[in-house]
Design a protein that fits this description.
The complex is a heterodimer of chains A (114) and B (520). Chain A has 3 helices and no strands. By secondary structure, chain A is mainly alpha-helical. The termini of chain A are far apart. Helix content of chain B is 76%, strand content 2%. A two-stranded antiparallel sheet of chain B has the order 1-2.
């Protein structure tokens, strides 16, 4: 049971993030929602590679015990880097939108819908 | 540096050359604008030429494998290991087919941009991102590794989003870009989660190796749903289409032409996951029906929403959704029938129709968006009610628009007719209703484009616009796509036999895909 807790947290994070993206009207909050989903997915990847009583996957001077899987860690690292780029670009869009419309409320930003 | 060396390394080169050039562009931009344009053009032409050489070799029956970082690029499995652990690029018929589309449209868009964005600031960044888009597309098409697919997907979406917002001084451009980017990031995270689900079960990221051990458990089904939802969202199929008109409308026209191809690359990823990763293990009837209904919905709803539009690019974007439906329909029918005896008779023809339509769509829709951009360049509006009589001053643009409109409506002898006929004939055997809907959509498409042609090009000339045609580089960009449309329309038999059939065959034959990487 105790080892399932990270997976429960993953699901919770993703649901919270999705709800934020779908129901919140503030653009900054939408960006936050996406970041929360991303953290959930990253936590999921890291949890996949975890092994009980194991050491970090560094071969030099490693004791001959179990190691955690290195691949999910590499994936997570890549995903974090991409996530930062995504967040930066989204926030800069939000800044531009605020400059043009004077608001971050997605209901009031509807020039495209006519 | 002989031909063989080039062929062996071309999959890696095709990704590396534009990637390096992309980061060289802002540097050269500081020194000289002219040198930067020359560099971008040389890179785009090089990619096109190398792509044609590679595609030619692939279409004659050789699947190209390239293992990143290995001393021998074809050795996919390292000596001490039992599974492929390096990143493997796998270029089979379909990858080469999609690569040709991306390279051709990028070349046309690049040429067109030379004059089209001449008056804008930040052109160095524009070309950097344009090359990065090309990298993302080629990478997604060539890669044989799931995580690599995710990385290139993100490169493609970040570059596209930034380019949609290129005219950031207009609020609507940033608004469209934001919508696109939220949808893209959500889709990409779904893909990453699905990759995690597969990795957790099989400890594999290589698609061919995964396909070999795929058991289709409950978790695999969840992963499949996530993949299909994410890629259908990114290719703009109907229930998830709302970002398409917004972002296509506000992006510069050359980028819209690239975005059309970018959505088709997502379509490619969808097909690749369904056919090559899951293949016969999945419930082909159910998934086939789901994809067919997505296709029918997109076709019909897309075209009916296009009818009342007044904005020329918005109207064309709804048509883009509707045409995506044809591809989903054709390939969906192929998936529905795969493994059944009917597959060899008309299932294959349906898939060929759907895949042929991808290329045709990229050509004529790209051309139509470029003509819309040319109109915007001259009259500074996209509103159909504010323009008239443009055929008086823009004769070539009018001709190109007519060719594109005939092609999209499926009128012979243009290329849209060839692929649509293949789809009509083959899906008729499954159910006549599918065929009837497809034809009806074609007719409405024609009606809608007659309206556009009439209101934009016919009538007395406008007073307050400058006389004359758009600059030469924009015309050359449009000519490239027009030549493609006419050639494909005049020789459809040759194209289907030599280009489309190998692509459809590569998609249908999962065993060959696995064998190319794993061997035996």
């Amino acid at each position: 049971m105790i080892y399932n807790i990270p997976f429960i947290v993953v699901v919770l994070l993703i649901i919270v993030g999705l709800a934020t993206v779908v129901f919140k009207r503030n653009l900054i909050k939408i960006v936050i929602g996406i970041t929360i989903i991303e953290s959930g997915v990253n936590l999921f990847l890291i949890t996949l590679g975890y092994r009980e009583n194991s050491v970090a996957p560094i071969y030099t001077f490693a004791p001959s015990t179990k190691m955690v899987l290195p691949v999910p860690q590499a994936l997570t690292l890549t995903s974090i880097v991409i996530g930062v780029a995504v967040m930066a670009l989204m926030l800069s869009f939000a800044i531009r939108i605020y400059q043009h419309y004077g608001t971050l409320d997605s209901r009031k930003i509807r020039r495209l819908r006519e | 540096m002989n031909m063989n060396w080039l062929l062996t390394h071309s999959p890696a080169l095709l990704i590396a050359i534009p990637l390096l050039a992309a980061f060289l562009t802002p540097l050269i931009d500081r020194l000289s604008k002219r040198a930067r344009n020359v560099l971008v053009l040389i890179v785009l032409i090089t990619v096109e030429v190398v792509m044609i050489v590679l595609a030619w070799d692939v279409f004659t029956g050789n699947t190209h494998i390239y293992t990143m970082g290995a001393s021998n690029p074809t050795a996919t499995i390292p000596v001490q290991a039992a599974i492929p652990i390096r990143i493997v690029l796998e270029v089979d018929g379909l990858s080469a087919f999609m690569g040709l589309i991306s390279a051709t449209v990028s070349l046309a868009a690049g040429l067109y941009s030379l004059a089209f964005v001449r008056r804008e600031t930040g052109q160095g960044r524009y070309y950097t991102l344009l090359l990065l888009m090309l990298v993302g597309m080629l990478g997604m098409e060539f890669t044989g590794d799931l995580f690599n697919l995710f990385v290139f997907l993100e490169i493609l979406s970040i570059a596209s989003a930034a380019l949609i917002a290129y005219r950031f001084y207009r609020g609507d451009a940033v608004e469209g870009a934001f919508k696109y980017f939220v949808i893209s990031s959500l889709g990409a995270l779904m893909v990453l989660f699905a990759i995690g689900l597969l990795y957790g079960q099989y400890d594999l990221l290589n698609m061919a190796a995964l396909a070999k051990v795929m058991k289709y458990t409950m978790l695999d089904k969840i992963a499949l749903v996530l993949f299909i939802a994410a890629f259908a969202m990114k290719c703009g199929a109907i229930p998830m289409h709302m970002w398409v008109p917004d972002s296509y409308t506000v992006a510069p026209a050359s980028i819209t032409a690239m975005l059309v191809v970018a959505s088709q690359v997502s379509l490619y990823a969808l097909f690749r996951i369904c056919f090559s990763l899951y293949g016969l293990t999945l419930d082909v009837t159910t998934v086939g029906i789901i994809i067919i209904s997505l296709g029918l919905l997109s076709m019909f709803v897309g075209v009916t929403m296009a009818l009342p539009q007044k904005d020329i690019k918005r109207l064309m974007s709804y048509h883009a959704i509707s045409q995506t439906g044809y591809m989903l329909l054709g390939v969906g029918v192929g998936l529905y029938l795969i493994g059944k005896p009917e597959f060899s008779t008309y299932g294959m023809a349906a898939m060929e129709g759907g895949i042929f339509h991808i290329f045709n769509h990229a050509l004529y829709k790209g051309l139509l968006f470029l003509t819309a951009g040319a109109i915007f360049y001259k009259v500074k509006t996209r509103n159909l009610n504010e323009m008239r009589g443009l055929a008086h001053s823009m004769k070539f643009t009018a001709i190109f628009f007519m060719i594109g409109a005939f092609a999209i409506a499926g009128i012979p002898p243009f290329n849209g007719f060839a692929s649509k006929l293949l789809i009509y004939e083959s899906v008729y055997c499954v159910s006549p209703i599918l065929s009837i809907i497809a034809m009806l959509v074609s007719i409405i498409t024609l009606a809608s484009f007659v309206k556009v042609f009439h209101s934009a090009f016919m009538g007395p000339p406008m007073r307050n616009t400058k006389e004359g045609e758009v600059p030469k580089s924009m015309l050359i960009g449009m000519v490239i796509l027009t030549v493609g449309i006419i050639l494909f329309g005049l020789f459809p038999g040759w194209v289907v036999d030599h280009i489309v059939h190998p692509a459809a065959q590569a998609l249908a034959d999962q065993a060959a895909y696995i064998q190319a990487v794993i061997g035996g």
